[in-house]
Amino acid sequence: MITLGIETSCDETAVSILDYKGEVAKPVILSELISSQIKLHQEYGGVVPELAAREHLKSLPLLFNEALKEAKLNISDVENIAVTAGPGLKGCLLMGYHFAEGISVANKIPITKVHHIEGHVFAIALEEQNFNEPFIALVVSGGHTEIILVESFGNYKVLARTIDDAAGEAFDKSANLLGIPYPGGAELSKLASKVNASDFTLPKVMRGQEGFSFSGLKTAISLLIKKNKDFDKKVDLKRELAFTIENAIVDNLVYKLEQALAKSSVKKIVVCGGVAANSKLRNAVSKLKVQSFFPKPLYCTDNASMIAYVGARRRAKNLDSSLKEVTPRLSLEDL
Ligand code: KG4
Ligand code: ZN
């Protein structure tokens, strides 16, 4: 099933065309394009929703035409349009949905609404043949941090979620305190990789409670920076603090993942979402005594191929969801 995927939930405009070959086969990706808005938002230190929405509107027709050209297809070849309907920024989701709707009405192609996190959870299926449920997904992105039991396609149970910041947000806010521009997670990790040890210590973040919590981290980091005179000018200290921050976030994620694994008979893990590109996290999870899977970095961050895959699988199964055209918030559990 030739499926056009459209993703505009945050600050990446992405369009993919994928040929879905069924549940057990690897889909064939005919074209995939991403236009990142990072530069546009960098000067504001975070995503400005209105600017993001306007940029999606500009980029969508260009990417759409280019994607068809790259796939060597006409719009009449497309059998299904998969579009992210939520969660995400309302104005951004609206741009993607209305663009999809225009193509749908003009060409009589059905639309399948896709949950962004379901896309991340199944991004691994873009690379792995015969990837079967059940598995446990650790979703770590800029907006979400959750451990999800994937019982089967369409059946999800949230085992843990963050009570405040998401893991990516924790990376980005920490990076900001170190003077690294938004989004900062990958850059902080690069800085941390320059050292093998650190004299800084951070409290083990909220281990006793249910779910993840990262908001205390910022205060602890600010205090450490204040204690060190001329911190800004000391490159080594910055590297060491980055090392300690990365360890603290990874340690917290892995600790909760181990807790979830201990309570479950499922011993297969997928790590997904932007922070899944982090190599320290990948190493730490690989050491757990379970099967672990990580999408390649391109499929960790927001992309439209994962949306096309889930949209095609849902359409092939005739699986409906409770997503409306634009659904800024909806837990995967309530899908
Ligand atoms: O999934 P994603 O592309 O967008 C959302 O849906 O949020 O995730 C983006 C997040 C950002 O917070 C970014 O800093 C973080 O993923 N990130 C990383 C790394 N690469 C991206 N964080 C830590 N280490 C990395 N290598
Ligand atoms: Zn995402």
What does this structure look like?
The protein is of the alpha/beta class and 335 residues long. The protein is built from eleven helices and ten strands. It has helices at residues 38-42, 49-71, 90-107, 116-121, 167-177, 185-192, 215-227, 235-262, 279-286, 297-300, 305-317, and strands spanning 2-7, 12-19, 28-36, 80-86, 111-115, 135-140, 145-152, 155-161, 268-272, 291-293. Strands 3-2-1-4-5 form a five-stranded mixed beta sheet, sandwiched between helices. Helix 5 packs parallel to helix 7 (215-227). The radius of gyration is 20 Å and the shape is globular. The structure holds 5'-O-[(R)-(carboxyoxy)(hydroxy)phosphoryl]adenosine and zinc ion. Zinc ion binds next to helix 4.
Descriptors for this entry?
335 residues, alpha/beta, 5-stranded mixed sheet, 41% helix, 19% strand, binds 5'-O-[(R)-(carboxyoxy)(hydroxy)phosphoryl]adenosine, binds zinc ion
Summary, kept brief:
By secondary structure, this protein is an alpha/beta fold. The protein has eleven helices and ten strands.
Estimate the helix proportion, in percent: 40-55%
Tell me the strand order in the biggest sheet.
Answer: 3-2-1-4-5
How much is the radius of gyration in Å? 20 Å
What ligands can be seen in this structure?
5'-O-[(R)-(carboxyoxy)(hydroxy)phosphoryl]adenosine, zinc ion
Strands, total number: 10
In sequence order, what are the helices and strands, one letter per element? EEEHHEHEHEEEHHHHEHEHH
Topology:
Blueprint lengths: L1 E6 L4 E8 L8 E9 L1 H5 L6 H23 L8 E7 L3 H18 L3 E5 H6 L13 E6 L4 E8 L2 E7 L5 H11 L7 H8 L22 H13 L7 H28 L5 E5 L6 H8 L4 E3 L3 H4 L4 H13 L18
Parallel strand pairs: 1-4, 4-5, 6-9, 9-10
Antiparallel strand pairs: 1-2, 2-3, 6-7, 7-8
Bound molecules: 5'-O-[(R)-(carboxyoxy)(hydroxy)phosphoryl]adenosine (KG4) and zinc ion.
